[in-house]
Specification:
The chain is α/β, with parallel strands linked by helices. The protein has 3 domains: 7-224, Rossmann fold, CATH 3.40.50; 235-394, Rossmann fold; 431-482, no CATH class. It contains 15 helices and 14 strands. The chain has helices at residues 27-36, 43-53, 68-80, 99-112, 130-139, 148-156, 173-178, 182-191, 207-216, 247-260, 273-285, 299-311, 344-351, 372-382, 399-402, and strands at residues 58-61, 92-95, 121-124, 143-146, 167-170, 197-202, 221-224, 235-241, 266-269, 290-293, 316-319, 334-337, 361-367, 387-389. The chain has a 7-stranded parallel β-sheet with strand order 3-4-2-5-6-1-7, with helices on both faces. Strands 10-11-9-12-13-8-14 form a 7-stranded parallel β-sheet, with helices on both faces. α2 packs parallel to α3 (68-80), α3 (68-80) packs across α4 and α6 crosses α8 (182-191). It is globular and about 65 Å long. It starts with 26 loop residues before the first helix and ends in an 84-residue tail after the last helix. The structure holds adenosine monophosphate.
Length: 486
């Protein structure tokens, strides 16, 4: 912002780049954008903002990380800048699939709307006391940002009169679909005035989302940025084939990786909430600074854990897919998939938590033989083979057995007679550089690391904890494939 408080975002005519000024946003929004440090609109912003300002319905195909939140919140601020909400009669509604995403959008709205102090917002999410939310609604709010369950609850209690809602945003529609929220969305949309503007954003456009769009959007403008099935080029992602599906072997392999990789902080994804809790306890027991995040935790714990991860007081966040979408934490060095996601698209979302805002990131997926089919689906989706890495000291699995489900690929190195891939020097090996180098996050004594109460029954038999101390315990054990219960 310049001294006079006037807009400073200018178009560079020579580069023919669209500026925020040209998108038709008011000076107070431009000032806020300038304060945040955005210089040029992202492609989704460039495409969507003009249509939103023309009050057109918009069907946006864009992943998180593309700047899509600003593509609808900025023009909403512009359109709501004049006029005020009456008690219980909000003027616009943004639906988000998870509480974390709703909170993140609310945070963005506060940033972008900071020079519009008259605009008010209510965040309506489950797991939190309803009374302050109701009081807020009574005062009259311009924008509601909500998760479906809490919103319907408040509708049913008569706390919201939807007659004034003129702008309705369905964000992360494909995630809503995965989470079974489509009937809720239909219920909510059915209560809103027919004369409204609807914006629907989704990372992918499966037929169910098209159907939803056909039902609720009127002659929408479609805007699409970057194909939904691509992983960011700033992410170096690879797989480690493990010899068996035994959980404690997986945990041991993960610990080796955490010690050998240059990990500053990481998301570690599990497929099941139960496993999130087990793995977090196991890591804590082994001295790692880890927190857990999944949908069964109460909201204050979820918020506290996420804040601790953002501030750096927790360096590893073991989580379910509740954290896979949209969470925007700028400096995450690594993502580990402790389990291969069941849904191939979730792979892209999970690894997309790193390598954000132009930074590079690393994602490593542990793959047991029974997960090979899931890898096939991911490689089919992203249309390329994911590079394989190994952990020094870990045995390479019997490739013929573990990768039976993988399609043959011209780029795959030929296999040796024993069924293993020959060593490919271009692959990451996750080996320690020298001797006993320990990299962050350094295992630190955890206050709760009282071994008796934790997961010893599920955990590896006591063996060397630090890779390199001696041969890892599981190398000395017969290979058995333990069936995982769901
Ligand atoms: P989103 O896809 O909305 O989650 O945004 C992803 C990240 O991009 C967030 O950290 C935003 O702050 C950032 N961002 C959004 N718009 C811009 C822009 N025009 N220039 C730079 N960064 C942006």
């Amino acid at each position: 912002m310049n001294g006079s408080g006037k807009k400073t975002v200018k178009k560079s005519k020579t580069e023919n780049v669209t500026t925020f000024t040209e998108l038709g946003l008011n000076d107070n929004i431009l000032k806020a954008i300038d304060d945040v440090g955005y210089t040029t609109p992202t492609p989704i912003q460039e495409q969507a903002i003009p249509y939103v300002l023309q009050m057109r319905d918009v069907l946006g195909c864009a992943q998180t990380g593309t700047g899509k939140t600003a593509s609808f919140t900025l023009p909403m601020i512009e359109m709501m800048a004049s006029g005020r909400a009456r008690a219980r009669m909000p003027r616009s509604l943004i639906l988000e699939p998870t509480r974390e995403l709703a909170t993140q959008v609310a945070d963005n709205f506060k940033l972008y709307g900071k020079y519009h102090p008259g605009l008010s917002m209510a965040l309506l999410i489950g797991g939190e006391n309803m009374e302050p939310q109701i009081k807020n609604l009574e005062r009259g709010v311009d924008l509601l940002i909500a998760t479906p369950g809490r919103l319907i609850d408040l509708f049913e209690r008569g706390r919201i009169m939807p007659n004034d809602i003129k702008i309705f945003v369905i964000d992360e529609a494909d995630r809503m679909l995965d989470m079974g929220f489509i009937p809720d969305i239909e219920k909510i949309a059915g209560r809103l005035p027919a004369m409204r503007q609807t914006l629907l954003f989704s990372a992918t456009m499966p037929p169910e989302i098209r159907k939803l769009a056909n039902k609720f959007l009127s002659n929408p403008k479609e805007v699409t940025v970057s194909p939904p099935s691509s992983a960011s080029v700033t992410i170096n992602h690879s797989l480690i084939d493990l010899p068996s599906g035994n959980d404690w072997q997986k945990r041991e392999a993960l610990r080796h990786l955490l010690r050998q990789e240059d990990v500053l902080n990481a998301f570690i994804f599990c497929n099941r909430k139960r496993d999130v809790a087990l793995l977090q306890k196991s890591l804590a027991k082994h001295g790692f600074n880890a927190g857990a995040l999944h949908g069964d935790l109460d909201q204050s714990t979820r918020t506290e854990t996420l804040d601790s991860f953002k501030s750096g007081s927790i360096s590893l966040l073991v989580c379910s897919d509740v954290a896979a979408r949209g969470l925007d934490i700028a400096d995450v060095s690594h993502v580990f998939n402790f389990d291969v996601p069941f849904n191939a698209e979730d792979y892209i979302h999970r690894i997309g938590r790193t390598g954000r805002a132009g930074k590079t990131g690393t994602a490593v997926t542990l793959v047991t033989p029974d997960e090979a089919k899931l890898i096939t689906a991911i490689e089919t989706l992203i249309k390329k083979e994911i590079q394989r890495g190994t952990i020094d000291g870990l045995p390479e699995p019997d490739m013929a057995q573990s990768r039976r489900a993988r399609p043959s690929s011209a780029s795959s190195p030929a296999r040796t007679p024993r069924g293993r891939r020959p060593r490919d020097e271009s692959k990451p090996r996750y080996q320690k550089s020298t001797g006993e180098v320990y990299v962050s996050p350094r295992p630190v004594p955890h206050p709760d690391s009282t071994p008796a109460s934790v997961v010893t029954s599920h955990d590896a038999p006591e063996g060397p904890h630090a890779f390199g101390d001696s041969l890892p315990a599981f190398l000395r054990r017969p290979r058995t494939v333990a069936k995982r219960s769901s």
